[in-house]
Amino acid sequence: MKNYVLLYLVVLLFGVGLTSCSKKDSTPAVPTSGNLSGSIQTWDDKTTSTNDMAGVTVTITNLVNKSTTTDAQGRYTFTNLPYDQYDLEISKTGYGTTKVFGITHSYDPAASSIGNTQIPNISFGKKSTTTVTALAVSGNNVLGEPGVSFSYTVSPTPTPASRAFVRYFLSTTADVSPTKYLAASAVVNFSNGSAITGFSTSQLVGMGFTSGQTVYAKMFGESFVTNEYYQPNLGYKIFPNINLTSPPAVSFVVP
Known about the structure:
The chain is mainly beta. The protein contains two helices and 18 strands. It has two domains: 93 residues, Immunoglobulin-like (Sandwich), CATH 2.60.40.4130; 123 residues, Immunoglobulin-like, CATH 2.60.40.
């Protein structure tokens, strides 16, 4: 009788052990990697999207040798990518380079595509074909307010159907440039060669300048889709699509 009881206990304990192992093994492991996907839409330097989306290089810059290229629809995918934060660099001949920092790639069981991350579409513009050929200070007011106004010429001559896009860079030194500036204007567009352009005193003060201060300005051709991005280690914005052909800086005193 004792032998039967002992055998029963052994069988019972063995069965409990199997049940415990079975429950433990049935719990799915949380994935540690998934696909990171996105798409690129290309633009000319004006306001027209293009069908030039194939062959754009997309590189993960905080991994070694991790890059891919887009297909004809501008799509790209990094497969089985470990979950982490990533920085992307996007480049193609004629377009310059743009960067996107701090993309979070993580496992989300509530997402429609579990384990995969979809990056929103990125607009990617061509380098500017607008060349600034002349720039001069034309007055100490703009649109009836104290400030500074400029005269300019650009090539090709802008028209309502083919506008010119430009950007100003300003500093307190004559070597102002797209990489050495204290203020950068928004993109300015002209539909003809005599449009009024300049900055009011209040705008200049808002940029960090003061009345009575000498300021230097340069104008450069720019693109409608500028590819601009903030470079954290440099502490300022990069403007990859600037046409660097430009006349010398002009100076003025803030009214």
